Amino acid sequence: MPINRTDYIWHNGEMVDWDAAQVHVLTHALHYGSSVFEGIRVYATPNGSQIFRLEAHTRRLLDSAKIHRIKIPWSAADIDAACRNIILVNKLTNGAYIRPIAFRGYGPLGLAPAPDHPVDVSIAAWEWGTYLGADALENGVDCCISSWQRVAANTIPAGAKAGGNYLSGTLVSLEAHENGYDEGIALAADGTVSEGAGENLFMVRDGIIVTPPATASILTGITRASVMVLARDMGMEVVEQSIPREMLYIADEIFLTGTAAEITPVRSIDRIEIGTAGRGPVTERLQDAFFGLFNGKTQDKWGWLDPVGDTPATEQTA
Ligand code: PMP
């Protein structure tokens, strides 16, 4: 997806020019994948720009850092404020994507960094549309089961959103694209369904919504959590349960969720049509409820929308 450049990037507490947000080639994270990051959506709503689940994203960023013993020198409140500010200073009023990243910076190269190894934090944002293609939300995408499995439990923590983990997603996605699919779905090391390269997976059969549990080497997505809440709020049954691969082929509906993918129907897997090979009724209801949060049709009972505000904080750049 294109990066639509803006004017500023928040870098270690300051707003710097887009082109000035640079790192040294000996940055630890560049060599060892020692970064943690987030992807956050901002929606243009009838009540102005709203950040979707900012608190949950910042919490996951700090959780990912804690798992990897990366000490972020900013509080959750600092990061939240910087996320709002980066939207305001760049005047992103049409919907945007925020990318906060914390990483082990330039310092001695070694696998076990010293406690005082520098940790840099940057937050960029740019205007952004749909991820898996313009008509994907309506007509669905074609997926394959990847020949690459997800990281096994006790190897690299799948539950932390760390840079190094994305070597897995890149292999899954590239293989899928090279074989003519829109996206790849990975199995966990035990052969049960894990998740898409950068999305969580849900299937529907006989009206029951099923999604793999946290133990299936998934990143526990914030969209996933939101979809479960919305579905239960509408009286639908949702279970977190191991899914054998063959269950996918005989599902009534399958959809992928993620900040980028939002709620994207899956039309086929391994060229086997899923259900009616289009968007199923449960998927559509969930999309309506989800997108309703941003067009005002779904009441935000959960406080998921965080207003960006009107004017950038001038006192503090954080
Ligand atoms: N799994 C992986 C591997 C991801 O990269 C993402 C995107 N962050 C997701 C699932 C979905 O998570 P979320 O809904 O929080 O964006």
Principal-axes geometry comes out as globular
CATH homology group of the largest domain: D-amino Acid Aminotransferase, subunit A, domain 2
CATH architectural label of the largest domain: Alpha-Beta Barrel
CATH class of the largest domain: Alpha Beta
Helix/strand-derived class? alpha+beta
**What integer is the average pLDDT?**
95
Strand and helix order: EEHEEEHHEEHEHEEEEHEHEEEHE
Low-confidence stretches: none
The radius of gyration computed from the alpha-carbon positions, rounded to a whole number of angstroms, is: 20 Å
Please, could you describe this protein's structure?
This protein has 318 residues and is α+β, with helices and mostly antiparallel strands. It folds into two domains: 8-129, Aminotransferase class 4, branched-chain amino acid transferase, N-terminal domain (D-amino Acid Aminotransferase, Chain A, domain 1, 2-Layer Sandwich), CATH 3.30.470; 136-295, D-amino Acid Aminotransferase, Chain A, domain 2. The protein has eight helices and 17 strands. The chain has helices spanning 28-32, 54-67, 76-89, 136-139, 166-178, 222-233, 245-249, 281-295; strands at residues 8-11, 14-17, 35-37, 40-45, 48-52, 96-104, 119-127, 141-145, 183-187, 193-196, 200-205, 208-211, 237-240, 253-258, 262-269, 272-273, 305-307. The chain is globular, with a radius of gyration of 20 Å. The two termini are 28 Å apart. 44% of the residues are buried. The structure holds 4'-deoxy-4'-aminopyridoxal-5'-phosphate. 4'-deoxy-4'-aminopyridoxal-5'-phosphate binds at residues 39, 169, 195, 198-200, 219, 221-224, 257-259.
